[in-house]
Every structure is written in structure tokens, then in C-alpha cells.
Amino acid sequence: MISRSPADESRWRRGIVILPSAFSLGNLFFGFWAIVSALRGDYSLAAWLIFLAGVADALDGRMARFSRTGSPFGVELDSLVDLVSFGVAPAILIYKLLLESGDWSWALAFIYVGAVALRLARFNIEQGGKAHHHFHGLPSPMAGVTLSAFYPFSQTPFFAGHLSGWPWTQIIGGGMIVVAGLMLSHVLYPAFPRLGLSNPKGRFAIAGLLAGVVLLLWEPQLVIFPVGLTYITYGVARAVALGLLDRSPDRDPLSEELAAEEEETEERDLEYEDMRPHWANRSPSGNPARSSGNDEESSGKS
What we know:
- The chain is mainly α.
- It has one domain.
- It has twelve helices and two strands; from the N terminus they run H-H-H-H-E-H-H-H-H-E-H-H-H-H.
- Strands 1-2 form a two-stranded antiparallel sheet.
- It starts with 5 loop residues before the first helix and ends with a helix.
């Protein structure tokens, strides 16, 4: 059995804690690059960068749960990044693409960004850092990716042959308001199930992921926008159907107990003392720095 020294253990833990935040910063990198690309008129690149930001966003949460390094710091960082990548970036893309000619059309973009900010704040209070089966309101990454995917979809032969005559400025402008309302609504949207072979949902998730990869490799421009619209419509249709049937879920879909049935999560506080460089633990005389009383208390609790 290989044993690690305390220094190796500290470096290993520091790397694991930093890894989810690295994905969050990658998300921010793609989102900021998308804003720059949209301002330069490269709408196609901006749309695909927002999609890549969505991929990074999906990976950072799963990486935090897999490594059991979730923390309040990571939750807050993720929300700040999402506001840029799925709020500001799609709003600027749509504004430059369709709304720039109107005097007050920028207000539509602002309403969308404001809804993303409010939705993320609510998410942090209700569900941040926890495993979940449903989202309370439309997730902002899906909203942002779907809106930005309109431009690649509009460049396909199918769009040119069948849909180019539609009033898309009005449709997308109104769609931003609808999407903003859904993000702040009480409509429940399903989360992607945990991958695994031990239960039917996990196997279904693997099959869905493989099918999605095949579709993206086949014709990504033609797939992402319709799939996003389908997801958005599904949540509304399900809510309407349950309302007409006067049915309610047997258990609270936002309950932590329901999520814990499939996945056990451990939220670990981020210990910044453990991440200090080795030289910071020494006093100016060259001797190791003494621990404070608070450090002794914390070490006694661990």
C-alpha cells in the first residue's frame, strides 16, 4: 500500500478542491470570449462558445459531487460565472443579431439578464450545492444555450427552405420574455439523471448521452436549438397537464431526501488554511509558525 506524506496529502487535496473551480473559470472564459465575438460580429463563434460554456458548467458540478469537494465558495462562483455566460453573453448576441436597430429593444435583453440574475440567486438559496432531480424554474444554462443556438440553426438549409419567412425578430424578442418568465416561475424542469449501470435511470441517462453525442456529431447546427425548445416546452406542457388533471407529486420534488436516494453528497467547507503555500507556515526566524487558538480548536473538531 502506497502511503502519502502530509505534504503530498495536502497538495493532493488542494488539487482536488481547485479542480471544480477550474471548470467554472473555463465556463467564464468561454462566456467572456463569446461576448467579445458577438461584439465583433462573429455570431457563429459566439453561439458555439456559449454551448462550450454549458458543457463546462455541467462538468464543474458533477466534478464537485464526484470528488466530494462542494463548498459555498464553489456555489457562489458558479452562479457569478453563469450570469456572464448564460445571461450577459446570450443577451448581447441576440441584441447584436436582431435587436440593435430598435431604440428601446435593448430593454428586452436587460429583462432577460435580470431574470437570469434573480433565478441564480433563488437557486443558491433553494438548491445550490445539492443534488437534485428537478430544477425550480427553467435552468439558466438551458435558456442561454437555446437562445444562442438560434443563429447556427438559422444558417441551415432546412431553415432557409422552410422557416426563413417567419418574423424571427418578433419571435425571438418575445421568446426572451417568455424564457425570462419561465426562469422565475414555479415550473419544475427535470435534471439530467446520474450516469450509472446499477439502475434503470442511470442506464437511460447513458443511452440519452450517447444519442445526444451522435446527434451533435451528425448535425449540431440542426439539433441544439430544437432540442432546447423541446426541453423548455416539456416543462410547461407537464405543468399544464398536471394542473388540468389536478395532480400533485407524491413527494416534494425539491426535497433533499429524494435526491439522496440515488446519490449521496457531501458538502465540504473550503479550508483556505490547508491551501496556504508551505513557506507561509514558517515564521520569519525560519521556525514553523505557531498555530492560533482557533486553529487548535478546528483541528480538534476534525
